[in-house]
Specification:
- The complex is a heterodimer of chains A (about 110) and B (about 120).
- With about 110 residues, chain A is mainly beta.
- Helices cover about 0% and strands about 50% of the residues of chain A.
- With about 120 residues, chain B is mostly beta strands.
- Chain B is built from no helices and 11 strands.
- In chain B, strands 2, 4, 5, 6, 9, 10 and 11 form a 7-stranded mixed β-sheet that branches. Chain B has a 4-stranded antiparallel β-sheet with strand order 1-3-8-7, with no helix packed on it.
- Classes of the chains: A mainly beta (about 110), B mainly beta (about 120).
Chain lengths: ~110, ~120
């Protein structure tokens, strides 16, 4: 099974900060990575797929990059609505796996 | 507009079988490369992929749970059914169904919390 390791597990930041979340795959997965945002009590929402393609209606302050085993999600200027938990996911194989999540908190 | 909705029991007893139904609309499960997948999330923990039903009726399961899981589609309805046998307390989780389009989990149901307790 492909393991996805996210860092950090928790991140404290101010509104307006640039925030970066990292995700490492246990083996090369090309660019078959998606990122999701989840708020308490809600289903996850697709932000980015194929490592860097923005999902429908997702603000342009979100961006993704990477290929192979190293991937990042960047929020260029953190907004109050962005405080949530973020998950990376690989879909290189049918057995999709998620990272353990990164909680973005208000500093 | 794509919608998915999970339904089933909120409480099951240990050793019982869980049956969850995903009722969807706004897309066809007969069209390549569309799939419906099941994902769960224990309280306070990360997401965990469980199973997938493909447009061509191929089925895939989480390796560690494949002896307990079955996914199927009702041929007359836009519904995908997940069954999990021999439920344990550690199977307590919110269970989501979602649409997969070209491998991407693009649309999610609201989720259903299933508690396993005697």
């Amino acid at each position: 099974d492909i393991q996805m390791t996210q860092s950090p597990s928790t991140l404290s930041a101010f509104v307006g900060d640039r925030v970066t979340i990292a995700c490492r795959a246990s083996q090369s997965i090309g660019n078959w990575v998606a990122w999701f945002q989840q708020k308490p009590g809600k289903a996850p929402k697709l932000l980015i797929y194929r490592a860097s393609t923005l999902g429908n209606g997702v603000p342009s302050r979100f961006s993704g990059s990477g290929s192979g085993t190293e991937f990042t999600l960047t929020i260029s200027s953190l907004q109050p609505d962005d405080f949530a938990t973020y998950y990376c996911q690989q879909y290189n194989s049918y057995f999709q796996t998620f990272g353990q999540g990164t909680k973005v908190e208000i500093k | 507009q794509v919608t998915l909705r999970e339904s089933g029991p909120a409480l099951v007893k240990p050793t019982q079988t869980l049956t969850l139904t995903c009722t969807f609309s706004g897309f066809s499960l007969s069209s390549s490369p569309t799939c419906v997948t099941w994902i769960r999330q224990p309280p306070g923990k990360a997401l965990e992929w469980l199973a997938r039903f493909d447009w061509n009726e191929d089925k895939y399961y989480r390796t560690s749970l494949q002896t307990r899981l079955t996914v199927s589609k009702d041929p007359s309805k836009d519904q995908v059914v997940l069954t999990m046998t021999n439920m344990h307390p550690e199977d307590t989780a919110t269970y989501y169904c979602a649409r997969v389009d070209a491998g991407v989990v693009s649309d999610w149901g609201q989720g259903i919390l299933v508690t396993v307790s005697s």
